[in-house]
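Q: For a teaching handout, I want to show students what a protein-ligand complex looks like in token form. Below are the inputs, and the small molecule is uridine-5'-diphosphate. Please produce the holo structure.
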Amino acid sequence: MSELFQAVLDSEEKSDLRSFVSELRQQDKKYLLRNDILNVYSEYCSKYQKSETFCTTSDLGKLIYYTQEIIQEDSNFCFIIRSKIASQEIYWLTSDLSVEPMTVQELLDLRDRLVNKFQPNEGDLLELDFGPFYDYTPVIRDPKNIGKGVQFLNRYLSSKIFQDSKQLLESLLNFLRLHQYNGVQLLVNDRIQSQQQLSQQVKKAITFVSDRPNEEPYEDFRFQLQTMGFEPGWGNTAQRVRDTLNILDELIDSPDPQTLEAFISRVPMIFRIVLVSAHGWFGQEGVLGRPDTGGQVVYVLDQAKSLEKQLQEDALLAGLEKLNVQPKVIILTRLIPNSDGTLCNQRLEKVHGTENAWILRVPLREFNPNMTQNWISRFEFWPYLETYAIDSERELLAEFQGRPDLIVGNYTDGNLVAFLLARRMKVTQCNVAHALEKSKYLFSNLYWQDLEDKYHFSLQFTADLIAMNAANFVISSTYQEIVGTTDSVGQYESYKCFTMPELYHVVNGIELFSPKFNVVPPGVNENYYFPYSQTQDRVESDRQRLAETLFTLEDPIQIFGKLDDPSKRPLFSMARLDRIKNLTGLAECYGKSQELQEHCNLILVAGKLRVEESGDNEERDEIIRLYQIIDEYNLHGKIRWLGVRLSKTDSGEIYRVIADHQGIFVQPALFEAFGLTILEAMVSGIPTFATQFGGPLEIIQDKVNGFYINPTNLEETATKIVDFVTKCEQNPNYWGEISQRAIDRVYSTYTWKIHTTKLLSLARIYGFWNFTSKENREDLLRYIEALFYLIYKPRAQQLLEQHKYR
Ligand code: UDP
Ligand code: LCN
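A: Here is the structure, written as tokens, with uridine-5'-diphosphate included.
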């Protein structure tokens, strides 16, 4: 039994537990989440006049602190206790205070009973368990190392080389033999036939290059190396070749994790990358701010540019200049024939500022043209993905003149397409979630049937399970995206065990301790987003035009509101108008605080101004709500709402203009997976107040380079901002100090250079790992395929039938 439960039951606190349980019985809710539990406990503490110390430090207090959920059935309770990150224990507490452990299956049955969907006949429901497939792969032990998969894998692989050097080095040799560029053999040729020969020849080659001047170009001694068994790819100069060979020599003689990583990171094996971002309006202009089109597009576009640059640098350093290597990055997205003035109906578009990065748009197969000719919400996109992947494979093979070396999926749909493509083409698959919807919508799995018409979560969650398990590696923007924090469950963690009543039970949906998980945060595009003080890079006419747009321009088509006093400090936010972004919450917080209104104007860049212009349910609801709040709190004269679609250049300059006015950026989302606007605001030098729920908790260090807010507590949020403003008014340097620290934070931790170097290093290591262990994955992939064909496909087909009549 849980030590905490035991401690409570064995002490005087047993009677406190009894009284607390009786409080629980009074609740209307039968399913309490952590916040509800803490509220009941705090009420209990005040009702029974418990001391502060008792409430927090008693065993009962600790038990409550770690309890994530309590479910009541009759007069009994199920407690889900998460005293450690990424692990949960389940207990059944009966009315006479006896405690029994519960199995995951019992918990899922209980949840089903709660919503009257219990299947009484054993065996009626499919049970999904991915656990056994991870039994033979190494797993991380300490939860704090979750997300550092590659470090772990390097340690594991190098120790295997150490223990079983013959087999792994043989494997390494075969791996090195594999690499070619446009039919030209790289690294080693047929002269090296065994690992002993490899070892001998490496030493010989080191002696040979050591006698040459450091800077001598590789081409000058290429043929001598060739006769020793070495082809291009070791370096561009004698020094670089020597270094690479030395690293390999060390790896063969005394393998250690750093040497393995250093060596594999130099292997020229990635030249062609596909980034799949299937659903949205993917373009370079005029697409951001639409309901499904936000950070993912920004992320993928910037990542493509940065990857291409890094691949070029790597190819040069590897000595491949004469092979005329042209790394290519393709962003694969859907072609939208009715493209609303964007280029989304164009098959191929070059990514600005690159030599060989492209947006390749593949249309959906013609079905009901009302659907396939237009934008389709991400919640409705599922039926088209399989044929889309098949068509895309053909187009990609033609564009690359061969197979890609890495496929990166984005969001559930892109990850599913990445899985289908990677499976067909036998390529390394990487997943990026951006935001997993399951944790965004409360109880979305338990009540999936009620939500199905609108959201089709049965397809989305099945696709998530498929893609995250199939991926060779997953990159997440934060640690908590994987396993949350001490008091909140991670996004991936929420797939560990859950019920989809009457569809399936997931008893082990993902191995969170798998080394496949790696935290690699994105950066910010420094050409567009840079500090306001970098005046030499700013265009004065843009500054003036955007200042006017923000504060004074009268343009009722795109701008709502006229400010009584445009010189007040701007409280600024920019986001898509969806419910979770909670701009309406920010407006309400501002509306309720007279003090905030006295000090600041509220300026929002958000979606559209008119319901009739929106095709999205949530956006429409938010528009209506925002107008209601403005009227209810009479915010006329204090608020500006810009329903504009900004170009990249303008969106960068807008932040800087806000910073010129010593403004504040607020990100009030109810949950934010990462939050690129936070990076953009911070690098521009705006002190930023961001939600404490999600990624911002890792981006910002509270009160050092920004501030956390709890967007559900409007009064506290307003007070925090007012306190900051007051402090700035008292101390003229304060705003500048926070501003500078925000800038420093981004440059030290969130750049695309850091991101792509890490990503490419991961791709190489996982490529090697995949090569050495591939036979172990086939059973997992077969299981996943069964899930795809037996669950996903029939449901997608049903949805397609519904689309016939749209
Ligand atoms: N954005 C924009 N115009 C808008 C709303 C958002 O240009 O009206 C951009 C914003 O600058 C940022 C991205 O869209 O680059 C939003 O990314 P974030 O990660 O903050 O949120 P998401 O929309 O992906 O949930
Ligand atoms: C999706 C989100 O919801 C944001 O939190 C991220 O910043 C964005 O994607 C980019 O990853």
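A: Two things your students might notice: The longest helix spans residues 778-803. The mean pLDDT is 95.
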